[in-house]
User: What shape does this take?
Amino acid sequence: MLSLKTIKIKIAETGIEHFCRRDSFLYDCLRDAGISLPSECGGHGVCGKCKVKVLPTSSLTPPSNAEKRLLTQEELENGIRLACQAKLIRNVEVAILSTIETYNIRLTKETQHCERDPKLIAKTFVISPERLGTSKGILEDLESTLNAQVRSLLVIKTLPQLSKKNEHRGKAIIYNDEILDLLPASSSRKLLGLAIDLGTTTLIGYLDNLENGENLAVSVQLNPQRVWGADIISRISIVMEKSKHLGALQKAVVKAINEMAKELCYKANVSCEDIYRIVVVGNPTMLHILAGVNPSSIAIAPFTPVFLRYLELSAKELGISQVHPACKISLMPHVSSYIGSDVLAGLISSGFLREMRALYVDLGTNGEIVLKAGKQIFATSTAAGPAFEGATIKRGSVAWQGAVDHVWIENGMLRYSVIGEREAETICGSGIVDLIAAALKSGLIDPRGRIVPPRRDGFEAFVREVDGERAVRLSEKVYLTQSDIRKIQLAKAAISTGIRILMEESGVSSDTLKIYIAGIFGTRINIHNAFKIGLLPSTSGENIVQLGNAAGLGARMILHNRNHERLINELRSCITTLELSTDSRFSDAFIENMSFPSENI
Amino acid sequence: MLSLKTIKIKIAETGIEHFCRRDSFLYDCLRDAGISLPSECGGHGVCGKCKVKVLPTSSLTPPSNAEKRLLTQEELENGIRLACQAKLIRNVEVAILSTIETYNIRLTKETQHCERDPKLIAKTFVISPERLGTSKGILEDLESTLNAQVRSLLVIKTLPQLSKKNEHRGKAIIYNDEILDLLPASSSRKLLGLAIDLGTTTLIGYLDNLENGENLAVSVQLNPQRVWGADIISRISIVMEKSKHLGALQKAVVKAINEMAKELCYKANVSCEDIYRIVVVGNPTMLHILAGVNPSSIAIAPFTPVFLRYLELSAKELGISQVHPACKISLMPHVSSYIGSDVLAGLISSGFLREMRALYVDLGTNGEIVLKAGKQIFATSTAAGPAFEGATIKRGSVAWQGAVDHVWIENGMLRYSVIGEREAETICGSGIVDLIAAALKSGLIDPRGRIVPPRRDGFEAFVREVDGERAVRLSEKVYLTQSDIRKIQLAKAAISTGIRILMEESGVSSDTLKIYIAGIFGTRINIHNAFKIGLLPSTSGENIVQLGNAAGLGARMILHNRNHERLINELRSCITTLELSTDSRFSDAFIENMSFPSENI
Ligand code: FES
Ligand code: FES
Assistant: This one.
């Protein structure tokens, strides 16, 4: 039983030792030891985030193909490895490499250019009681000196402790008009903020230095609530079933935020106690659950939310403990039950508001669409569902190792690429869009989405029966069945109909539109194929901007400049929402849009 | 051992039974059973507050003299007894009689006349989500309907629970601009407030109905902090010695407030959960300790307090639990380190502010003095010490059973009355003032305070040696020694010098002054004797108003009308404080005032 033999791992930074089984992945061992390495791919060798440095190099299995692809030759020579790929052979010393990484380079650059005027600042002060005498309190003098108020008893209690040589000298942490904390003048405390994009599927966190606008670390996690259901409606159903589930869902996301804060601070080599503010954007349901407020009314007519407005709470009362005890958490405001603060944050971080005519599409589970026509802004959300995120599709998955991410026609054949350059196991959103486009072009499916009978034109090999259904098949394991295609048609019809109705409402045509695509799936997608299958209105390529995590960038911008918070509050009341489900144009257009475009294949 | 035999007490209201020793006082047994009866005299048969009804009447010792004096014949026939007087003989059933009592009738009447505009109100609301659709939250609609904000997450969380038949209907408890609590429309909850005068020696609490201005109950307790020291300076010294004593002092007063709230609600037969606001007045040191803020800086030059301003806190964070969890506690603002909110509250509740020329004297441990001369108001505090409260005087005590409370000359003899009409044990403040006046008149002491040798004029029997000191002796146990008289001279000089300097400062003479005397000692004192010994500047009797607990009445007025809170805040910045210790006039005048007036004896 050689594989059970115990291997010793020593953490270079702390000197602490842990023991693991031989042949287990280094990533898993470190997690067991309480060290969460960054990961965006769930340990599938795709993201390259789980880099560590090991000594000696011979203590691990040889580099995998993924490691050879994601690491440079120089890195490999220096003992840099991906912890999710390397297995333990013998005792090893591991350095965690708390390098500052950014999820999306573009985001970081942009905020560094944006003007800084943060709500959270530090100011030094000196108070001389001699000058005050008996008729003015130290507290009142502090408040008038700093032009801010103390609201917490804890802060008042620390005031007498700052006295030294007949003076009260220190550093005050000020949030808007409130003095949150008082520190000795000698304190080396930093001022950190956390920006969180709380999505239905993923949780993206940014740790920023509020004194210079710098991003220190980024972390992406799957939303742990997904085990209760993939979309908003299924999570609300769970709460409606039993109200105690609300507590469980809330605890799960709070735990994830705590872990994320810990991980981010570890990566950036800073103290969690230095985090004084959290800004959260997300859809209203996610933010109701985070606040522990029952979201059921969002799912029952008249679909009225409990709150849409900006909420400022104490992180502590939400159970968020991996921050300063006085840390504030701002839940950003929403437009309506289905247009959340994540969309508003995305609008301010993209160039959307500067354009005369622009379309903003978030290709996530909810499919939010916003259209700007001059001074008017219209928004809607479509229950597109998670088909483009690979969920509900038989062989679908998110974009991880083994997933087909691109499909094309080459020499009269369907060809594809697989994430991690290994055998194809599943197909992710971008692969699905490509496969539908290729199948349309090659005549494997007709514009109405029906898989046509094999025609002996070379492509016949790609149509097969699977489980009593016709399917377009790429490989043994990867195919789209007729009912998968129906689901994709429904999702595509929802989004394209939403876009069409907004365009009709505003009288804007697609060729004059700047189109902003937000969301992770939106970053990977082949835009031309998105035009071809009719998901997006066709326009020239240079009119398309693939934003990445626009919502998260917006949240960071709010951290660094109070004007963005004001902007979001103003913006939300300027947006006209359209309810597709009650719009008479919707059902007709929806049926029409179930078909794929035939002209431009 | 008959006296150890166990007697069963059954509480009529609850049916619960307790066991006690035969021959113990009923008052003590009830306290052991967790029932604090009201008491203002500490169980000395003076206040008559500890009334209970017993069945059968033969289960207790026969009525004492105190009971015969304090209870009517009808009451005694109906089994009404004073628990502090009656001892247990056999098994008994006791009804606690939660009658609504008021400490000072005058106070209650006055507030009922004052206009009501409380900061805490209840409003009903109906919200129809149908009207809101998806673009307005229930919370926002509630807030705009009620013109108030929700700041607590707990309140937001209750919002979904109020939904019934597509409507949200309920009652909101609103404090200023904040929605503190939401209740079902059917709730029978009352709106109660607690006014507390937190004195160095006594704690006086009033439970008021904020919906109609009515007082429901009053309670007077000794401040439990007195075991750490009689005056402010000794309590601060204790904290300076070890900072953990601050926590102990704070806990003691918080416990007393909790017990007081429980007792008041029990007496008024209401629920403690209905108390949503507490207003506290007191001197800055007492309020620092209540807030858990170290008051040491008040006792060390430059004597600067940590805070003087109005503080609004959550009762819960102070540890006050016998109230609604959302209950607010307002610590009223002060003028300076030694002129507290109790004085400000007394000024607004008396007629002081309406007079052109008026003097306000609080004859408590700190001896605060305020003088109004037209639009100018001057204030000072004298470290008079607790001599007039009987403390530091060999045979002195507070005004309880067995204390000499009045002394006069009758037929060439000193005569006296004793509280409880029993043998004289001690002498209280009013007795001390009278005895000094009588001793001056009869020549037993000279104007410089020296006890003169016996002169064989009939009074010689009243001068004796006690413990090697000459003393003016009323009875075997009651006398004032030469050093007692020196202490009284010091206290009297402090107060009269304070008054004189304020009068000089403002150019006001005593004959045009309206004089307000606040405090419990001030209520019992013989004003003419106070003139005679030079404690107060002499004026005609109708210019004197003995206010009783003016500070507590002021606190109640703040509960019932937000304008009084505003008034107090304005008032405190209009008052000019004089520091006697640094005033060159003080030491000369003080020495002069050590002597008693000789002209008007
Ligand atoms: S976690 Fe290792 S490459 Fe993604
Ligand atoms: S406690 Fe009984 S008379 Fe005072």
